[in-house]
Amino acid sequence: MFKNIIAPAQAWLLSQGRCVGCGMPLKNTPGEKKSNFEKVICKCGRIYIYDANTKKYRRAKLEET
């Protein structure tokens, strides 16, 4: 039930290019880049993957950290 309330807010934040934890804008810094995917680390410590083809962010999976 709680996930049904939080998930739309988190999806909206990611579509705006913001961190779901602290709300700060995610910035693509030079770092690990695998083909069209780039690892982005927020200042609060959450890790995201930026897809250059679709120009969208998503939370990183445990294997990608």
Note down, in words, how this protein is organized:
The protein has 65 residues and is α+β, with helices and mostly antiparallel strands. The chain has one domain (2-64). It is built from one helix and four strands. It has one helix spanning 2-15, and strands at 33-34, 37-41, 47-51, 56-59. The chain has a four-stranded antiparallel β-sheet, with no helix packed on it. The mean pLDDT is 88.
* Radius of gyration, CA atoms, in whole angstroms: 12 Å
Order of helices and strands: HEEEE
Based on helices, strands and strand pairing, what is the structural class? alpha+beta
Give the overall form: globular
Distance between the termini: 28 Å
Task: Tell me the major beta sheet.
Answer: 4 strands, antiparallel
Q: Give the helix proportion (percent range).
A: 10-25%
Number of discrete domains? 1
The neighbouring-strand order within the major sheet is 1-2-3-4
Please mark out the parts with pLDDT under 50 across 5 or more consecutive residues, or reply none. Answer: none
Number of helices: 1
Share of residues in strands: 15-25%
Report mean pLDDT, rounded to a whole number: 88
Per DSSP E runs of 2 or more residues, the count of β-strands stands at 4
